[in-house]
Amino acid sequence: VSGPFVAGRYLLRALAAELLGVEARRLTSSFTCPRCTPAGGSDHGRPGYLLDGERLPVALSLSRAGRVILLAGLDLRGSVRDPSAGIGVDLERVADVGFDGFDDVALTPAERRSLRGLSVPRRPAARARLWSRKEALVKALGTGFADRGPDEVDVLMDDRITDVLEVGGVLLGTLGLAAAVAVSPLPTG
To answer: Which residue intervals define the domain 4'-phosphopantetheinyl transferase in the entry (predicted)?
Structure first.
């Protein structure tokens, strides 16, 4: 385990600390997997951190594609956010979602129709966009694809999801990447 994995975990801890105004070195990693360790303490699943044994009121998400890392976080303190809110971010390489059979197992019938309506050169980026939207949404929901297959999760018109086109002035499409961020439930107020 090295490179982008370690860098991502380091940056995620720094983001949690910054969101809540605490020192990163005081945080203890406590990821939660609904199947393995719903109470926390896992090394995988939904990211989270403890401060002095107490779970921090923050929702976090991390995604990597090659050496590129994308993070998202929500401060869940206060009345504006639902304390059970989740955030999900996903970053996909366009080249990784173009294999034979992908559309049949990963996309809903409506999503497949939307791809067929595009010119052939535009389909790979659109396919990666759909997949990044699905991954971001199931991360925000905290379920992954455990309860339903990706071909049952339609993301064409879901208001909880926003496409990420640019990060730090760099257009992700120029790097062969697609990304999305999702928040569930939607913020109020």
So the answer is: 86-159
